[in-house]
Fold this protein.
Amino acid sequence: MGSSAQLARLLEHPTIWRGASAAHAEGLASGFAALDACLPGKGWPRAGLIEILVPRFGSGELYLLLPALAALTRARCARWCVWVAPPLMPFAPALAAEGIALDRVAVVSGARPLWALEQALGSGACDAVLAWARRPKAREIRRLQLAAERGRTLGVLFRPRRAAREASAAVLRLGLAPMSAGVRITLLKGRTAMRGAIDLALRG
């Protein structure tokens, strides 16, 4: 009995890969029931690269991830949550107010953000890695997706909305448009995802 319980706890760790069963794993709840209902796995993928396309950085894209980041950073076996090249330095009190454990958050800046993103995604040390990039190449997106799979990490790449015309290896793509009382999410790509737009009310 004791050995079985220890094994079960070990298999719960996010760095453990469990073969075919991983393909059927439930997603990470986004914190928005209407969005979860339309996403593959009923939430954000626990491993893989997603793209969120915005008209400009700072259009509500970060707020969309805060509930999931809070859950990840406060989990028993929490790994790192890394932010690569954010357009503005994260405001620690605001993150803490959203339930994010600050001792699990690291910010990376420098001249090679895509290289830093790939390293963080593939390291196996992170639960989530967020990055902002304007013009990544298709082959770079493919490398990032493979790194996210290898590291069993949720990678989130924020890009300008014009990138919707480009092909991408990301497992999920969303378009985001700000509204007076929230955001409109358009599902652009995702295995078994429901196509269409979702209006979400966000707290101010």
